[in-house]
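Worked problem 6 (solution included).
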Amino acid sequence: MKRLKKNQIILSVTAIMLIAAGYLNYTGKANNTLATGTLLDSEEMASIGDATFVSSSATASENEMENEIGEEENIQTNVVVETTAAEVNNSDESEYFTKSRLDRDKMYAATLDSYQKMIDSEQMSTEQKSIAQTEIQNINQEKNAVMITENLIKTKGFEDVVLFVNVDSISVIVKAEGLSEEEIAQIQNIVSRELKANVENIHISMK
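Solution. The predicted structure is:
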């Protein structure tokens, strides 16, 4: 049992280092703060660039909630908008979303490849390989959920959107000059449903 726990700890630490390394590739972008005034963690800072943040809460009426997630409860929130540091043209904005998705997918691919190498390695125990296989399944499920969520948000009339899933939060960057309370509620409902996230952990910003 001690050997099993030790193997699991070693593999877990390795996995965390791999994921952390992937997120650190995004560092160096402009600093941002949440509309509530709380500083973003390093992963969120890196993934979002100079997007404009709104609070994670907006008022979702009962009808809006029923349209999005059936009988789910209303989400009571307030809207706060933070202005961007600089204006960018449509070409730069489109490039931002395309590059962000590409970088995110590369990170997923690198992490999956690392876990697969663990499974193929003769030095890994059966228990360690089993954990690695579970992580691969979890990552693939997350990738599919992110893709579905982005597509559903686009069906609400948004030109583009990109999502970043962090350990305890989800960053949603929408191509828009402004967001109404109804639009924020729609985004929250979709993300909450598809990614099983609490509304307070969903951070919406504009680009």
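Discussion: The first strand starts at residue 52 and ends at 54.
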